[in-house]
Amino acid sequence: MPSPRVEISSVAVSPDHFIGGKRVPSDRTFESRSPLDWDWKLADIARGDALTADAAVVAAVSAFPDWAARSPQDRGAVLHRLADLIDDNIADLAMVECVDMGMLLESLEKRGIHRGAENFRNYADLAGKYEGRSWSSKGTDNRVQRMPAGPAVIITPWNAPWILSTWKVAPALAAGNTVILKPAEWSPLSASLLADLTAEAGVPPGVFNVVQGIGEEVGAALVGDRRVRRISLTGSPETARHIGVAAARNIVPFTAELGGKGPFLVFADADLDAAARKAAGQYDDAGQVCLAGTRLLVEEGVAAEFIELFGVYTDKQVLGDSRSPSTTVAPLIHPDHLRRVEGFVERAREAGDRVVRGGERWKEDGLWYLPTLVEPRSNHSEIVQREVFGPVLTFQTFRDEREAVELANSTEYGLSAIVYTGSEERALRVGSAIRAGTVWVNTFLVRDLTAPFGGCRISGIGREGGDYALDFHSDLKTLQILQETTA
User: How far is Cα 256 from Cα 275, in angstroms, rounded to an integer?
Assistant: First the structure.
């Protein structure tokens, strides 16, 4: 019997799994607490296990043939209805996401939730417009076709759960696959609301499923199931290594976006005020953004001026309740994560790195950490080389373009980079030389949903976005017909 819904800031949310179009409870639960106030328990969430995973896979396998047989236009019509429902429920979705994960309410209401609607619209339209390559060769007519691949397991992280869930679910459904979404246990609630909206939009039972729980328990069972035909992860390199083993065992394609340590390069010919303002903005969402430019690399001749401007803009940051319009820096997601961020800064101090600003909690009874800037002793410092995933930036200088590129490419990561320069020629040279999946020049976080997205090196495997995601969620077929057959 389904569990009662829980009222979260006047929004009713089911704490149960969503499998085969029905709410399914579990004997065990885990707590969901709000980072805005850790004493505020939001709900006891159903904690799935191997049996839960099996039930979800059975539902997805059963629903796959009918969903896959529909035309892209038919599936697209359902996804457009879902997008409209998302837009109709922005206020409720934004509030739940805010109190569950801590993201700024104003940002979610103005951009974040609507981005989810746009994900479904964009992929629905792209799938419907697809025309496979066709050509004649050696007396045959050839055509490339997409075939839906099968049930897909999608594993999302605790940061930006709404945006990242819809970003991954939309192409999988548009391509004709069925989906099992496993949200992170630290922020599972918006996935539950998404399940409600899919049912209301007319997504058939079993086509979209949500399984909640601990990764080692239910996540491992899902990615290790031989009936699963695609796996998509956003998470850590450590998690990806485990999933990669399971995917290889079953010969299942998977994509993985695994975080970054993005360089933020500022050349002497740049608009320093604009660069400093954007650099201070890297503290948004408490630095819990994989694409953030966390390594400030500034040309020596303008370093002092840049740091002064950066300080002015950083001083304007406001820490506080994410529901307040005046807040610009949110709390960290969880006490364990706060301790992790603190550990990085404490070890940096012990190693002789200089903490230029911040470096401590904002107040003892919350999860806020002050915007922090560290000047490392060496480029080999841990604080430079490893992803902190908090409001912690590092500051280094470079002498020339060659050294700037060397520093930018000096970590194991390669997800994104930011370059500020007044020279178009330098923008092209440096942007082309940096090893990253995305390089922004004189801007940040401007996204075209049709562009490829992903990382190099340990920042990830594969690409999402546009037709790249639809191709991943499909098996490509070449249909080759002897021309005499059609004469």
Answer: 30
When computed from its CA atoms, the radius of gyration of the chain, rounded to whole angstroms, is 23
How does pLDDT run across 236-280, given as a tens digit for each residue? 999 999 999 999 999 999 999 999 999 999 999 999 999 999 999
pTM of the model: 0.96
Q: Is 257 a catalytic residue?
A: yes
Q: DSSP character for 420?
A: E
Find out whether 35 and 288 touch, Cβ atoms under 8 Å.
no
Angle of CA points 171, 98, 89, to nearest 5°: 60
Which of 97, 257, 387, 464 is an active site residue? Answer: 257
pLDDT digits (tens, 9 = 90+) for 121-148: 999 999 999 998 999 999 999 999 999 9
E strand intervals along 196-248: 208-210, 230-234
460 three-state secondary structure: strand
Please pick, among 97, 106, 185, 290, the residue that the annotation labels catalytic. 290
Domains and CATH numbers, the chain: 6-258+455-478 (3.40.605.10), 262-441 (3.40.309.10)
233-240: Cβ within 8 A, 24+ apart:
233/154, 233/155, 233/257, 233/258, 234/155, 234/156, 234/157, 234/164, 234/168, 234/258, 234/290, 235/155, 235/157, 237/458, 239/155, 239/215, 240/460, 240/461
CA distance 47 to 218: 8
| CB 374, CB 356: distance < 8 Å | yes
- As given in the structure block, the two tokens for residue 153 are 């397991």
Compute the distance between CA of residue 228 and CA of residue 53 in angstroms, rounded to an integer. 11
If DSSP codes are grouped into helix, strand and coil, which group holds residue 143? strand
